[in-house]
Amino acid sequence: MAYASGLRGREAPYFPAAERPLASRAQGSALIPHNGGLIVTLTINPAIDRTISVDRLAFEDRARIISSRESAGGRGINASSVIHSFGSPTHAVLTSGGEKGKRLEGLLKQSGYPVTVVPIRNEIRTDLTITDKHGLTIHLNESGPDLSASEVASVEKAVRERLDGAAWLMLCGSLPPGVPASFYGNLIALARKKKVKSLLHTSGEALREGIEARPTVVTPNQQEAERLLGRTLLTRSQFLEAAEQVRGMGAESVVLSLGSRGAVGAFPGALLLATAPPVDSVCPIGSGDALAAAYAWAMTREAKPADALRWGVAAGTASARLPGMRFATLAHTEEIYTQVEARKAE
Predict the structure, then answer these.
(1) pTM of the entire structure?
(2) Is position 26 within any domain?
(3) H/E/C letters for each residue in 153-215?
(4) Host domain of residue 172
(5) Which residues of the chain have pLDDT under 70?
């Protein structure tokens, strides 16, 4: 039995991952029965996500609040939530500090999957999402707390301890102040030594240096790819060229998320374009996290990259239809999966 570590002398409860048979209703699915592949996620810069829904967002005009909610936030936490809801084992590693950290830990007590908390001295951040009924969304992120060198070392140690028996390591989200840009790259190298596949889901210099460490797959969105490559991406040919260029920087595979337009997958020997069906997008924030999680989930079931790409696009598209920071269920994802096409680029 595993326990979350570092909770200031208190043992955190262990929540076994849900055990459900692999869904096989989606037509054309090449997935095999569950093989027990554990997906470890890291969120070194978690947040309290506050999501406010309003009637409409308009410049220099009032908006009336319809609802407000708080949830445990951060790309890795979001990924673990999706993976767990799909019935797969996952273990989330994250930092926590201050009163907000205590609230974060409280929110995670009902997550249903095991969590390892690394305590830090400073207060974690709050992220604010404001969305209206028409799908217009504003997302505001704080930078996060400063981490000391010893705290960074504690996070690396916690990840190392979780990798035994893992199939995938997902390195997710921004790096807070005090964490070197090489941090994710070091963990990618560590995962490789332990024969664990790695998925990099970040931005900025952490993305650049992480790619150079040769992760199994990297999953930037359009804006992250534009900043990485230093140019605007507008056309289909530019998206395809960008995915191949990012792969040439060191990643084994690249999944370039394009929001409502689907995704481009650059894999060894194949360049694919996956198109999403048209849907009414209510809140696209977090869709990229769902895409990355569903891709890793499918790969633990020995799906082919093209099929994993379809599952990722389906999860991202299905999640965008939901209000606030919510993620699609496996059933909703399957519904979209049957409508996602992945074809070779010509």
Answers:
(1) 0.87
(2) no
(3) HHHHHHHHHHCCCEEEEEEECCCCCCCCCCHHHHHHHHHHHCCCEEEEECCHHHHHHHHHCCC
(4) 38-344
(5) 1-36, 324-325
